[in-house]
Amino acid sequence: MSERGTFRVKRGLAEMLKGGVIMDVTNAEQARIAEASGAVAVMALERVPADIRAEGGVARMASLKVIEEIQNAVTIPVMAKARIGHFVEAQVLQAIEVDYVDESEVLTPADEANHIDKHAFEVPFVCGATNLGEALRRIAEGAAMIRSKGEAGTGNIVEAVRHLREIVGGIRRLQSARREELPSIAKELQAPLEIVEEVAETGWLPVPLFCAGGIATPADAALTMQLGAEGNFVGSGIFKSSDPERRARAIVEATTHYKDPERIAAASRELGEAMRGDDIAQLAAEGELLQHRGA
Amino acid sequence: MGGAGPAVPPEVGAERLRVGVLASQGDFAAHVRMLAQLGAESMEVRTPEQVESLDALVIPGGESTTITKAIERDGLRPAIEAHHAAGKPIFGTCAGMIVLDRLHLGLLDATCRRNAFGRQIASFEADLEVEGVGPEPMRAVFIRAPWIEEHGPGVEVLARVDGHPVVVREGPVLAAAFHPELTDDSRLHALLMAMASGRGAGSPDAGGERKGAS
Q1: Mean pLDDT over each residue of chain B, to the nearest integer
Q2: Residue-range domain boundaries for chain B
Q3: ipTM of this complex
Q4: Do B28 and A19 touch (CB under 8 A)?
Q5: pTM of the model
């Protein structure tokens, strides 16, 4: 019997993206550059996070025209973002056959209490997380891939590092816990005991873990991989730099050869200017952090 | 996995087989784990030097455009060609099958159709009978999968979906459009190892383990 939309099929695509770089693009030309540079997938957006941040206003699912233009431009998977809790945006994205839906804090949340019931969809979902509890709650809701949130659009890796360490460190803590301690840890994590037990036993999430939010250089990309990420999302870091194609290729190379400093060095030469970047403390003072949306 | 421990490795003599999985990009870790369970000395390979010392090579699932670019960028093509020319086996799954075809490495006399079943929404899993691994069907997971559009006379078709070849073999090259590494069914990996130890030429059942489709 042939079955579509099983969890294994949904998680399967995330497995295929491992060791790769998923790039934010806003039009067909950028999508073609991303594909030619070795991206494993593109994220179709109307504005990259840095511009969403700068321009303000309500950030919604991209226009279908933009997404479809990008789908027609490349053969690699095309992802698109839906607002947190906006299950109808997700239904629309599934209807136009987007390959992955990102229920994303980068867009303005549509529901402050609930995330999308992702089990109800055949299209797979990726969700952001700042710590292990958040990751496991998203997986319980049906996410087939997790990305550490970082702080999108800043070109500053500090939050991504914090969130990766939280998630990976949380897993290590589960592994060293005694079995009778797991129920109280599950309570503390606000995550289902069943998934907590599974992570304690296997030593890893039941789905792939990628990093997002602040990668701007090849060294950033290799850092997240060395910290335990299985692949990278790069948003503003590529198309807000002075030479996007070259930087994209370099970040792809550093993601593959993340354990080889000489290769990372070679990839880091003559890249032009990185995106300028933001200080997190200042954004926090201005109440502009995206990572607290949809915990 | 079942609780029975690692599958019994095929008889490979005193030396463990060195089986590398191309780790430029894709689900290489799943292959490395499955091969280790079969008793191979399995490892990730990213450089030409690492390919040179192998008894068998796996090119995993992933994005074929990304993997193809990495092979060229990292100068892996000559090493893979030399591996093939020495008669050592290569197993490609999904993107790995595409990478082996005429339009890419040219080690499989066939042309693949990429994303042949459609976008992710059309991805599926199904029971599939595969010649050469025994009568029990494999639980085959197809992710934005290709099929073989056209092939030369030397290519043996081991399984089809809707008439399209999805598992093929040509000399030392074995290719599948789906992902056995995402299940507990290691029979195609066992076939690869049997080919590497010189026992797989006409062997209908190379061993490996079919566990309940989970």
Answers
A1: 90
A2: 18-196
A3: 0.94
A4: yes
A5: 0.94
Closest Cβ–Cβ partner in A2, A75, A122 for B65: A75
Concatenated DSSP letters for A43-72? Answer: EE-SS-HHHHHHH-S---SPPHHHHHHHHH
Domain formed by B18-196, architecture: 3-Layer(aba) Sandwich (3.40)
Does A19 contact B25 at a Cβ distance shorter than 8 Å? yes
What is the CB neighbour count within 10 angstroms for residue B109? 18
Whether B181 is a known active-site residue: answer yes
Give bridge partners of residue B147 from the DSSP assignment: B113
Q: What percent of chain B is predicted at pLDDT more than 90? A: 85
Q: How many residues in total does chain A contain?
A: 295
> What does pLDDT average to over chain A?
96
List B31, B83, B84, B94, catalytic entry: B94
* The dihedral formed by the CA atoms of A6, A10, A16 and A20, expressed in degrees to the nearest 10: -170
Cα–Cα distance, B123 to A107 (Å, whole number): 28
* Cβ neighbour number for residue A280 with a 10 Å cutoff: 19
- Torsion angles phi and psi, residue B103, rounded to 5: -80, -5
State which residue of chain B sits closest to A2, comparing Cα positions.
Answer: B126
Q: Which of B25, B94, B123 sits opposite A20 (nearest CB)?
A: B25
